[in-house]
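Design request, tokens follow.
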């Protein structure tokens, strides 16, 4: 049973052009996909295709279609399948293998890996910055703030009308 991959594209579509550019960087994958421009009159477009890029995966009489973002996701999955595993990877790639995290952790070192972020003072983690607020708040500031609060409450209470006595 022969497997065929047919990519329906439009040369007027930016997404299609980006996909073609991405494919040319992976010759093994690029050569296994038949590309057809939907603007050619002799290209048959199945009725379930509503957007481009669209990929038709044919296996004998059966076929699966991918459209729009699904095509990019399929291409990315094929690229990751073709990449040789040359580094330690986590058990669950969706947990640790994303671009926001390392694909492994170091059990013997509790310091963060400096390539994951940049320290504000451009120093390493060992030069810890004390983030606690200073304890030297003066009692004078507290007393001034208390007086301002009491004055505010007094003025507010004067502005509130008194209750109306009902008979």
């Amino acid at each position: 049973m022969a497997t065929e991959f047919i990519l329906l594209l439009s040369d007027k579509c930016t997404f299609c052009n980006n996909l073609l550019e991405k494919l040319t960087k992976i010759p093994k994958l690029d050569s296994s996909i038949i590309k057809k421009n939907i603007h050619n009159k002799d290209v048959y477009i199945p009725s379930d295709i509503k957007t481009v890029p669209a990929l038709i995966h044919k296996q004998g009489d059966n076929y699966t279609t991918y459209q729009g973002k699904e095509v990019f996701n399929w291409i990315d999955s094929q690229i990751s399948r073709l990449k040789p595993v040359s580094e330690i990877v986590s058990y669950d790639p969706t947990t640790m293998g994303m671009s926001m995290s390392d694909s492994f952790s170091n059990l013997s070192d509790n310091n963060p890996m400096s390539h994951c972020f940049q320290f504000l003072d451009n120093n390493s983690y060992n030069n810890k910055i004390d983030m606690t607020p200073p304890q030297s708040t003066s009692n004078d500031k507290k007393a001034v703030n208390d007086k301002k609060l009491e004055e505010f409450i007094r003025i507010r209470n004067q502005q509130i009308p008194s209750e109306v006595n009902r008979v």
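Comment from the thread starter after seeing the answer: thanks! The two ends are 96 Å apart (CA to CA).
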